[in-house]
Amino acid sequence: QQQVKQSPQSLIVQKGGISIINCAYENTAFDYFPWYQQFPGKGPALLIAIRPDVSEKKEGRFTISFNKSAKQFSLHIMDSQPGDSATYFCAARHAGGTSYGKLTFGQGTILTVHP
Amino acid sequence: NAGVTQTPKFRVLKTGQSMTLLCAQDMNHEYMYWYRQDPGMGLRLIHYSVGEGTTAKGEVPDGYNVSRLKKQNFLLGLESAAPSQTSVYFCASSARTSGEQETQYFGPGTRLLVL
User: Fold this and answer.
1) Are A13 and A80 in contact (CB under 8 A)?
2) A4: which chain B residues are within 8 Å (Cβ-Cβ)?
3) Are the C-beta atoms of A38 and A89 separated by less than 8 Å?
4) What radius of gyration do chain A's Cα atoms show?
5) Chain-chain contact of A9 with B106 (C-beta, under 8 angstroms)
6) Beta bridge partners of B39
C-alpha cells in the first residue's frame, strides 16, 4: 500500500516563481521526513529534512512546512531557478519495530523551471 | 571518497537470464539498501541489510536475492530475469545512528532492460 502520497506528478514554474510540492502520509509511526532531489542519470541526493516536532525548516531557498495533525508536509522552493529542474521525492522514515530506519518514498514530482 | 558505486551502469538481458548487480560503499556504513525506480512509482525497497551477513526483505522482494558477505558490498541477484524487472536500480547506504544523521546516500544507478 502507498503510505506516502505525493502531488503533483509534474510541475512547470517560471524562473523566479515559487514551486510547491505536497506530500501526505498515513502511518503515524514515522519520525523523520526527508526530501530528495534527483537529476537525470543520477541517484537521489538529500536536499532537506524535518522532524515531526518542528513545523518549519528553512535552508536557503528551500523550506519544508510540516503539519502533524493533518499528516501533511510540503516543499517550497523560493525564487525557482532553471538549475532546480529535477525530480523531487518526499520520504518518511519508519520509527520502530522491524521497519526501523527504512524510508518510504512518494511517487516523485518532475519540476521544470523555465528561464 | 567514492561514496556509493554501482556496477554495471547499464545492462540488457534476455528473459530467463541471470545477473548480479554490485554495490560498494567506502563510508563504513552499517546499513545498505537496494531500490528499484519505475515511472510514477517512486523508489521501492527490494531488500536491505543492517549489517554484514544479514539481509531482510523490503516492499518488492520477489524475483531478487541479495548477499552481504562484506560490510562494504551488497549484491543484488536476478536468478531468472523477467520483463517486469526492467527498471533502474539504486543502491543506498546509511550509518547506524539515530536522528538526522541516518541519511541514505545513493549510488548512480544501474539501468536494466529485460527483453
Assistant:
1) yes
2) 42
3) yes
4) 14
5) no
6) none
What's the rounded Cα separation, in Å, for the pair B1 and B67? 23
**Cβ <8 Å between B40 and A108:** yes
User: Is the CB of B100 less than 8 angstroms away from the CB of A41?
Assistant: no
Please give, rounded to a whole number of angstroms, the shortest distance from the CA of A43 to a CA of chain B: 4
Contact B108 A107 (CB under 8 A): no
Q: Which three cell numbers stand for residue B47?
A: 531488500
Which of A27, A59, A107 best probes binding to B when mutated, by most B CB atoms within 10 angstroms?
A107
How far, in Å, CA of A3 to CA of B30, rounded? Answer: 26
Full DSSP string of B64-109: -EEE-SSTTEEEEEESS--GGG-EEEEEEEE-S-SGGG---EE---
Report residue A60 as a C-alpha cell. Answer: 536557503
Nearest to A89 among B42, B103, B105 (CB): B42
Sheet of A62-67: strand order equals A4-7, A19-25, A72-77, A62-67, A56-59
Summarised one tens digit per residue, pLDDT across range B31-84 is 999 999 998 888 999 999 989 999 999 999 999 999 999 999 999 999 999 999
